[in-house]
Amino acid sequence: MDRVTLRRLRQYFSPYWPIAIASIAAHSLFEIVDLLVPYATGQILNVLSGQPLDGLAHQMIARIGQLFNQPPDQAPSQALALGTLMGVIFVIAVVRSPIQPWISTWFYWGIPLKARSDRHGDAIAKILTLPLEFYDTHNPGRIASRIARGLENHTWTYPEIMGQLIPKLLRVTGIFSIMLVIDWRVAVPFALSFIVALGLSLTKLREIIRHEKQIDQYRENTDSFTSELITNIKTVKAFATEQREYERQRQRLAREAFTFVHRVHFGYTVLTSQLRGIIQGSSFSILMITVWAAATGQISLGHFVTLMTIANLGYAELEPISLIAEVTARRYSSIERFHEFMETPAGLDRDTIAIATSSPQFATASTTPAPPTYAFAGEIRFNNVSFGYDPDRLILQNFNLVIKPRETLALVGRSGSGKSTLIKLLFRYFDPTSGTIEIDGHDIRTLNTAAYRRRLAIVHQEVDVFNGTVLDNLRYGNPKIHRADIVKACAIARVDEFLTTLPNGDRTVVGERGLRLSGGQRQRLGIARALLVNPDVLVFDEATSSLDSESEQAIQRAMHEILGTRTTIAIAHRLSTIREADRIVVLDQGRIAEIGDHASLLQRGGVYSRLYRLQEQGELY
């Protein structure tokens, strides 16, 4: 695990470090104190066999004897010695047992579960503040998979590293210390064997981690394509490509399984085999040394029992330590990829939400108070605006346009002429490469993004509908709206015309992505939702291009009632929907080709007139 990953892990759990350090220290202390049990057992054996006690044990028993008025120069009785040593074992083994779970289990699971909740909220904040172009290149299924795996593996890894690995390593250090005090000839080979085993584990795990990263990428790809299959299942069935899609997924799963079985699992099996060989060989070597030392009288029988017991305890910890390291290696890749996602730079709209976090790494959004409140007359100015998603290929070049307050302005032009790009710049999804955009004389870059966008509303060609009731979707932009205002907006947008046909009226659940509503119904719902935020600027982004004639006429009637009530911008594919616009701006390759009302543009006989005639003749452009 490199330094960067350790820093990321430290930041992930940063709010909980004080209690984490305290719990680790307490648990480790219990693990070390537990080693007094085999020591006391060895001393009991010395008492029973008539062999002398250790200096430490003798001093402890003598002090206990003084409490019972035993003279300092008198040797402690067998009963006192046995009682004292049994008391030590009782306190360590019996009294400690109900206390330790609160030090270990409670904190080692409480901390990661709380951290998971906090970091999940931070991940949601990251999703909401990433720039739009991020989602153009990253599949939703892949993003969700990366977040879910990262959070899950963080949660499971903390109890194993903090609750087991660190205390176990300190326990082994305590074992080595006791061995060193009793007989250094046993302690040295014990330490060397441990160092060799851990070194072998780390070396092998570095190789395995590389394969784990491959598997993690394979899994993300598989999850991504599975998500696409679910989303596009109607298209799959319509073209009868189920078998082909099944085979493609089977190939991805087979590639993932091959890497896991023949690279990762094989590597772990080899490592386990090597470690067990080292453990058994070293354990037998310790046995030979201690038997020889006891047989030649260099150590007592009690020390022999103590050394063999704690040596076996130490080697018993080696395999769990290696297993924890292996499991951590398996999770390393997903943890790393989660942090890479969380460190993705936020977009221009990072101040659209406010989150509270104590870790700088996860401060993806503003922590300032609620944004200010704006009210605009609705005058919009594009001043020498140039922009391109690729800096070398500009879509807009020195674009200038003034939209008056309460004016209805239509944008028309061929695909790629810059219509939708203008709206994205207006909503500040992107900033212009050069030039400025102003509303009521204010450069929109100087305004609070969240407060500014709340004064705008847009109805897209495909209205996004959430899986809730019709009423939930109507209130989405303004949860506190009054019922009377909802009824009024539904009447303007012609939502009331289909509410009576729904089984539960506005309490009807519309389904995932509004699948229980028709395209025209979703469009009218989108218009009503936009009106309920009472925007100063309302945008229709090709709101009728994919509708049938009846639905289009209903939308046109709704739009007609809105004209003149606020600044309205309509991107139109069907030119028949914008005849009543105050001005029509015809775009061509990012520049204004023509501008005027419907009648004047037809008389001019230019681009607009040609496009209109093509549509009237039933042709597409």
Mean of residue pLDDT? 81
Number of E-type strands? 10
> What is the 3D shape?
elongated
Strand order of the largest sheet: 6-7-8-3-9-10
Estimated radius of gyration: 37 Å
Biggest β-sheet description: 6 strands, mixed
| Poorly predicted sequence stretches spanning 5 or more consecutive residues | none
Distance between the termini: 58 Å
% residues in beta strands: 5-15%
Fold topology:
Elements: H1 3-12, H2 17-33, H3 36-49, H4 55-67, H5 78-95, H6 100-129, H7 132-137, H8 140-182, H9 184-231, H10 233-238, H11 242-295, H12 301-342, E1 380-387, E2 396-403, E3 408-413, H13 419-426, E4 434-439, E5 442-443, H14 449-453, E6 456-459, H15 470-474, H16 483-492, H17 496-499, H18 519-531, E7 537-541, H19 549-562, E8 567-571, E9 583-588, E10 591-596, H20 598-604, H21 607-616
Parallel strand pairs: 3-8, 3-9, 6-7, 7-8
Antiparallel strand pairs: 1-2, 1-4, 4-5, 9-10
Helix pairs in contact: 2-6, 2-8, 3-5, 3-12, 4-5, 6-8, 8-9, 8-12, 9-11, 9-12, 11-12, 16-18, 18-19, 20-21
Structural write-up:
This protein has 21 helices and ten strands. The protein is of the alpha/beta class and 621 residues long. The strands form two sheets. It has a six-stranded mixed beta sheet, with helices on both faces. A four-stranded antiparallel beta sheet has the order 2-1-4-5, covered by helices on one side. Helix 19 links the parallel strand 7 and strand 8. Helix 9 packs antiparallel against helix 11. The longest helix has 54 residues. The chain is elongated, with a radius of gyration of 37 Å. 34% of the residues are buried.
